[in-house]
Design a protein that fits this description.
Helices cover about 5% and strands about 35% of the residues. The chain is mainly beta.
Amino acid sequence: MMHKSRRRLLPALLPVLAIGGWAAACASKDPGAGESTTTAGESTTTTASSSSGSTSVDTTVSTSTDPSTTASTTASEVTGDPTTTGGDVELRGACALADRVGSFQVAMEADYTAFSGSVADGVVPVTILEQVGDDGTCVLLRRNNPFCDPMCTPGQTCDFDGTCLPYPANHDVGVVTVTGLVQPVMVEPLAPTFSYFDTSLMHPAFEPGAAIELSAEGGDYEAFVMHGIGVAMVVPSAKEILLNTGGAVPIEWTPSGSDATLRLVMKVDQHGLTPVQLICESDDTGSMMISAEIITQFLASGVTGFPSADYYLQTADSVDLAPGCVDFVVRSHRQTPLTVEGHTPCNGPNDCPDGQVCDVPIQTCV
C-alpha cells in the first residue's frame, strides 16, 4: 500500500485551464476504439506530442493504490477558519477513480497558476483505470476500453458490461470561492458546460504552507467545503529519467519540508489501445526508489510515441456528494524528458537512426 501520512494545515503567515465540459462519446464496434479519458473536473492526463516530447497534465489524482478505494489522509479537526487561525483540518485524500464525478484544482506551473474544476452526475466508465501492478511505492494503471454492440447513440457512453449509459453531464454547484490564496477567487460556472475556471490568478497564487479553503455555495447539489495546503514549486534533481528493463531508478527532488505528497506520473505507451501508466508517490522527503520489477512490467506493457514524466507536489481533499466523490487538489507541476532505452520516438524519417524508419501513426522508429 502507498503511505498514509498526516496533513497539517499550517498557519498562513505569509501573504497569501480551463477544464472543458464533458465531450460526448460512445464506443464503436471496434473494441480498440476508446473514448476520451478526460472527465469533468478531473485532469486525466492528456498528451500532446511534439518533436521535443509531450506536454501532460495529470488528472488521475487518486492517492490510493486500489482505484476502487477512496484514499484517506488523516489530520486533526479544524478549529475556526483555517485560513486565518492556522487550525488543523482533515485532508481525506483524492477520490477513487471509480467514484470521482468531479474535481477542482489550483495548479501552479512554471509561468502561471490557474484554477479549474467541474462536477458531473456520473463517472465515465473508460476513466476507471485497472490496477495491474503494485510495488508499495508505485502502481501500474491500465486503461481498458468498454465495447458496446450495437454502438451507443450520441449522448451515451459504453459501460464495461456492454450496455450504453447516458453520458454524464456537468452541473451547477453555485459560486465557488477559494480563500487562503494571495488573492481570493470567486468563480461562477460557465454555461452550458458548467465548468469553473480562472486563468488570471496572481503567480504564484499561494504561499507554501498557506491554509487554503474551497467552498461551493450549492446549486444542483448541496453546498460543500474542502481544504488544501499551499505547496512549493516541485524541483526535480535530474534533467531526465532513463528507463531500461531490469533496472531500478532512483528519483530525487528538492524537499520542501512540507506535508505534501510527491507524485510522479510516467507514460511510455502514448498510442497503445490499452496504455498503462506508472504512478509513484512519496512523502516530501526528497527521494524514492522505483523497483526494477515494476519498471520491467511497465515497459513490457508497450512503448510508443514520446514518453512523458510529470512531477507533482500536492495535497488532496475530497467530499461525497449525491452523485459521487469530488476532490480538491493544490499542486505544483514540472515535466522532464523521459527516455526508454532502445526506443526512439519520431515525427518523421529524419528523426530515426540509420536502418530504421518512422512509423508515423505510433511516432516510433522501427
